[in-house]
């Protein structure tokens, strides 16, 4: 958990009168955390990430146009890796295409089981 800078300053100010262990125990944090805060009083902030190449609209349109394509084919067409396609499909909750009808073997097996 990241503590705001003003709270860090208050806690670090207590180090002038007490030890690391006493201050850490009083605030329920680790003494190592206090040492880190002393070296770097300001929180680092969030990581700057690059925008996503594959938005949900792009994936949805590609799946609608090419429903039977493999992931590597989508990757070549959209300019990314197969792993990126896999993660995007999972992120936007696309599932594997399901069979809509039973196979002849399943039909025969069900007929035998129902006649017993």
Automatic annotation (TrEMBL):
Pfam families: HTH_Tnp_IS630. Residues 31-52, 97-116 are annotated as: Disordered. Residues 101-116 have a biased composition (Polar residues). Residues 1-114 form the Transposase Synechocystis PCC domain. Coiled coil: none annotated. Signal peptide: none annotated. It comes from the Bacteria. This is Transposase.
